[in-house]
Amino acid sequence: MKSYRKELFFTVPTRRAFINITPQVEKCLAESTIKEGLALINAMHITASVFINDDEAGLHHDYELWLERLAPHEPVSQYRHNVGEDNADAHMKRQVMGREAVVAVTDGRLDFGTWERIFYGEFDGRRQKRVLVKIIGE
Ligand code: ZN
């Protein structure tokens, strides 16, 4: 069995953003030379997510509003976590949007369903963060 590991780095200039990282993961898969197996992609921070959905701007706008209703950033004083920091909402948004995605690798390609793409969800940006890509198989 072959094993491949790589960290991707992101510095998002805003507090929140959704970034399509599918091209970077496809590049990792090509580097791995793995044809059959599994790819795990996970955020290495507890205020960021990796998830799979549609690359459609309206949906991303809807996610932003929906997450802000679920866990509003302001007022920051509403959260017990926010003693010396202000990112309690980011922890909750990450919990809802998930830590990782797993994609089957078939014939050297990411075996997606219709319209599926991999996204990095940032909820407390403006600093460098990492995403782990681990691919195993033959
Ligand atoms: Zn925190």
The bound ligands are:
zinc ion
State the domain count: 1
Indicate the low-confidence ranges by residue numbers: none
Shape: elongated
Strand order of the largest sheet: 1-8-3-5-6
Report the average pLDDT across residues. 98
Q: Ends: how far apart?
A: 5 Å
CATH topology assignment: Jelly Rolls
Give me the Rg, rounded.
16 Å
CATH level 1 name: Mainly Beta
What is the number of helices? Answer: 3
Which CATH architecture would you pick? Sandwich
Relevant CATH superfamily: YjbQ-like
> What's the number of extended β-strand segments?
8
What are the salient characteristics of this protein?
138 residues; alpha+beta; Jelly Rolls; 5-stranded antiparallel beta sheet; 3-stranded antiparallel beta sheet; elongated; binds zinc ion
Structure report:
The chain has one domain: Jelly Rolls (Sandwich). The protein has 3 helices and 8 strands. The strands form 2 sheets. The chain has a 5-stranded antiparallel beta sheet with strand order 1-8-3-5-6, covered by helices on one side. Strands 2-7-4 form a 3-stranded antiparallel beta sheet. It is elongated, with a radius of gyration of 16 Å. The protein starts with a strand and ends with a strand. The structure holds zinc ion. Zinc ion binds next to loops.
